[in-house]
């Protein structure tokens, strides 16, 4: 029971303050970028959301695999929860990206490789959620959703590479180098990492809450079924 | 400095998207959870547990 | 009275769900078209033809695979197969090959027509074209075969298969349109470049994954 206590009681008190500390770092520790000005501060939440979205999908895939392997419903609940919250963060990336890009490039959307691959990730998330929404609650649909989750994560390396060789793609506009944040200033680095960690805590906490909701809902469904 | 005013509004918009989004989701979660918990309570009461 | 109210609310909720699934499908369609269009910008008319062909293949193929599955279901074929001592992996391979053949036949019809209507002055490298088309088919079929059965079991059966399959196929669209455009323009297989390599990787990954995971979705 101790693990659950941690999630229920302590995690919100870690996640909340972490977000506030992140805000502090973003606005008061990191210096203003010389070329882009204040608007560059979107970068910290934009990239953190992206990292969280990808980790979220990894969680979906891993839980799905564990579910298929072990048959325990618990893993399926985690997968479903991670998908819901992952898509939320993915949406954040797709909303903050254009807001930022608009100021730099003047248009709302650019076929930037990172944004494009996030868009594809978003569609993967949504198709998973649609399957669960339309498929109902039986075991077979859960297994199909698990397979979908695994199939999705398997595609990610190819998605990243194929998006890069897409002829219409612009060179990375929002970030300078692949796999590198391109940040030199230590204050900026700190802000980014603190924000990323804070987002991760929030993600874990929300997944915990959502999983708990699903567990209660499943119990309720069982009771309804028993009553006939 | 009109340009920087627009910058600030959009910066605010981006952060609002995230904070409001998270807040709304959390709100929805707590509401759904409370509803399910209430229904579970009443089901258990009906059962006479 | 409460029961009637509940039922009415559920009907309304269902309509909203339908709208959302159509909205998502619309996004997917636009994305597919965009990627096919962008990947088809290489080599001018050959590229455009490649993009158009693959969009046609995708949608005809999805319909075809869905239809064949529905027919099978109506005739209780699947139930019969499951009772017989056929293991899941052989079943997967059999369905996969079947779907690939169906797709190939369809392409054999569509490609000449497409070339006739759109491909003026093209030097197509036919054996290479066959190889590229086959590779695309295999990847497509690997993904669609696994989820065809899933789609019909859901409430939104007609839109479900594209909804499930298109996101997974988006990288395939990019890669295969690029490769097809290249060979339609006369490039030899060796010179097509990374898109061919990644296409092979896509096929390998998804055939293996489908082969290994099919058993999980076939037993009741």
Task: Give a brief description.
The complex is a heterotrimer of chains A (228), B (49) and C (220). Chain A has 228 residues and is an all-alpha fold.
Q: What is the topological layout?
A:
The complex is a heterotrimer of chains A (228), B (49) and C (220).
Chain A: H1 2-29, H2 42-70, H3 73-105, H4 113-135, H5 139-164, H6 186-227
Chain B: H1 2-47
Chain C: H1 2-39, H2 44-74, H3 77-83, H4 88-118, H5 126-152, H6 157-184, H7 194-218
Helix pairs in contact in C: 1-2, 1-6, 2-4, 2-5, 2-6, 4-5, 4-7, 5-6, 5-7, 6-7
Principal-axes geometry of chain C comes out as globular
Helix content range of chain B: over 70%
Q: SSE order of chain B in H/E notation? A: H
Radius of gyration based on Cα positions of chain C:
19 Å
Number of helices of chain C: 7
Q: Biggest sheet of chain C, open or closed, and with what strands and sense?
A: none
Give the termini separation of chain C: 37 Å
Which structural class best describes the helix and strand composition of chain B?
mainly alpha
Q: Are there runs of chain B of 5+ residues with pLDDT below 50, and where?
A: none
How far the N terminus sits from the C terminus of chain B, by CA atoms, comes to: 69 Å
Put simply, the count of helices of chain B is: 1
The count of DSSP E runs of length 2 or more, i.e. the number of strands of chain B, is 0
Biggest β-sheet of chain B, characterized? none
Mean pLDDT of chain B: 84
**Low-pLDDT segments of chain C:** none
Q: Pairing-aware structural class of the strands and helices of chain C? A: mainly alpha
Oligomer: heterotrimer
Instruction: Give the beta-strand count of chain C.
Output: 0
Q: Beta-strand percentage of chain B?
A: under 5%
Rg over CA atoms of chain B: 21 Å
What does this structure look like?
- The complex is a heterotrimer of chains A (228), B (49) and C (220).
- Chain A has 228 residues and is mainly alpha-helical.
- Helix content of chain A is 79%, strand content 0%.
- The mean pLDDT of chain A is 86.
- Chain B has a domain at 19-49.
- Chain B has one helix at 2-47.
- The longest helix of chain B has 46 residues, at 2-47.
- Chain C is mostly helical.
- Chain C has one domain (2-218).
- Helices cover 85% and strands 0% of the residues of chain C.
- Chain C has helices at residues 2-39, 44-74, 77-83, 88-118, 126-152, 157-184, 194-218.
- Chain C is globular, with a radius of gyration of 19 Å.
- Chains in contact: A-B, A-C.
- The A-C interface holds A 68, 111, 119-120, 123-124, 126-127, 130-131, 133-136, 140-141, 143-144, 146-148, 150-152, 154-155, 158-159, 161-163, 165-169 and C 17, 20-21, 24, 27-28, 31, 35, 37-39, 41-42, 143, 146-147, 150, 153-156, 160, 163-164, 166-168, 170-171, 174-175, 178, 194-195, 198, 201-202, 205-206, 209, 213, 216-217, 220.
């Amino acid at each position: 029971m101790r693990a659950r206590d941690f999630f229920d009681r302590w995690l919100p008190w870690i996640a909340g303050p972490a977000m506030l500390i992140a805000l502090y770092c973003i606005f008061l520790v990191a210096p203003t970028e010389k070329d882009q000005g204040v608007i560059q501060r979107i970068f910290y939440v934009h990239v953190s959301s992206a990292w969280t979205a990808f980790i979220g999908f990894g969680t979906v895939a891993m839980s799905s695999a564990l579910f298929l392997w072990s048959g325990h419903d618990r893993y399926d609940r985690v997968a479903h929860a991670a998908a819901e919250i992952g898509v939320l963060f993915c949406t954040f990336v797709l909303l903050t990206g254009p807001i930022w890009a608009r100021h730099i490039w003047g248009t709302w959307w650019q076929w930037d490789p990172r944004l494009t691959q996030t868009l594809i990730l978003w569609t993967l998330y949504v198709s998973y959620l649609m399957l669960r929404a339309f498929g109902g609650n039986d075991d077979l649909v859960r297994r199909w959703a698990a397979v979908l989750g695994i199939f999705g994560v398997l595609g990610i390396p190819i998605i990243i590479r194929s998006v890069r060789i897409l002829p219409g793609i612009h060179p990375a506009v929002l970030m300078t180098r692949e796999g590198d944040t391109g940040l030199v200033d230590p204050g900026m680095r700190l802000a980014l990492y603190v924000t990323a960690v804070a987002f991760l805590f929030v993600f874990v906490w929300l997944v915990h809450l959502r999983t708990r909701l699903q567990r209660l809902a499943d119990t309720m469904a069982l009771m309804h079924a028993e009553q006939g | 400095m009109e340009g920087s005013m627009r910058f600030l509004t959009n910066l605010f918009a981006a952060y609002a998207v995230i904070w409001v989004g998270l807040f709304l989701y959390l709100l929805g979660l707590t509401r759904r959870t409370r509803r399910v918990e209430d229904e579970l309570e009443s089901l258990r009461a009906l059962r006479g547990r | 009275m409460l029961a009637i109210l509940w039922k009415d609310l559920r009907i309304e909720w269902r309509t909203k769900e339908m709208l959302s699934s159509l909205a998502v499908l619309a996004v997917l369609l636009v994305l597919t078209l965009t990627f096919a269009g962008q990947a088809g910008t290489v080599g001018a008319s050959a590229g455009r033809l490649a993009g158009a062909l693959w969009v046609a293949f995708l949608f005809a193929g999805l319909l075809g695979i869905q239809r064949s599955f529905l027919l099978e279901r109506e005739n209780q074929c699947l139930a019969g197969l499951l009772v017989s001592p056929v293991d899941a992996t052989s079943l997967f391979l059999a369905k996969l090959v079947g779907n690939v053949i169906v797709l190939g036949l369809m392409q054999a019809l569509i490609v000449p027509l497409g070339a006739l209507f759109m491909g003026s002055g093209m030097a197509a490298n036919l054996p290479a074209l066959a190889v590229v088309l086959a590779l695309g088919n295999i990847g497509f079929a690997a993904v669609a075969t696994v989820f065809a059965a899933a789609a019909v079991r859901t409430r939104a059966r007609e839109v479900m298969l594209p909804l499930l399959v298109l996101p997974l196929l988006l990288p395939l669209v990019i890669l295969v349109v690029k490769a097809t455009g290249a060979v339609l323009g006369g490039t030899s297989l060796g010179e097509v470049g990374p898109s061919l390599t990644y296409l092979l990787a896509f096929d390998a990954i998804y055939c293996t994954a489908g082969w290994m995971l099919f058993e999980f979705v076939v037993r009741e």
